[in-house]
Structure formats: C-alpha cells, structure tokens
Design goal:
1 helix; mainly beta; 11 strands; globular; seven-stranded mixed sheet
Length: about 110
Amino acid sequence: QVLLVESGGGLVQPGGSLRLSCAAPRMIFSVFQPKTIAWYRQVPGKQREMVASITGGGTKTYADSVKGRVTISRDNSKKKSFLQMNNLSSEDTAVYYCTMEGSWGQGTQVTVGS
C-alpha cells in the first residue's frame, strides 16, 4: 500500500486556476520514478473518472473533457505529481484523487463557484 497525500484543492471562481499536488512521502525515489501516476475525480453519485496520467517516462494522457486546460507533471526528486488546472468551470467541481499501483489518496475537494 502506497501512502499518497493530495493537497491544493479549494474554492475558485469560474475561469480561475488551481494546482493540485500529490505526494508519496514514504516512497523512495528509485521506486517512485518509474511508476505511473494518475489523477481521477469524482462527483457524488457518479463514477470516478480519469482526468490525466503520467508514466515514469513522462508520457501524458488526458481526458477529452480537460484537454487544453489541464497539465499533469511530476517531480521525481520530490516524489510528487502535480495537476495544473486552468479555466475552471462548475463542471470541474469534484473530489480529486491521485492513484499509484492501486493505492489512492484521501482526495482533495475542488469547488468552482462564485
């Protein structure tokens, strides 16, 4: 089981930006570096959906709904992944989770509204 800790969520106005972070504090660098990390989001009553993923080699995948607005990245030296989200709308309101090797973080709430 991998400990993953998300942060960076909050309330933002439509059109605004947020940068989410996912840390794996107990994982050593050599184990973290090759692993794929993915970000998902979930709205109450709906299935969890994939937002973006990044492989150990840096290959990125995005959901169609966020392409052009969201950028996933990773800093292996810090054992972290980041999700930069721009031009947010109410449809982006959800709990955002990061996942690695079947483990999930506790999630961070993103709320887009005025």
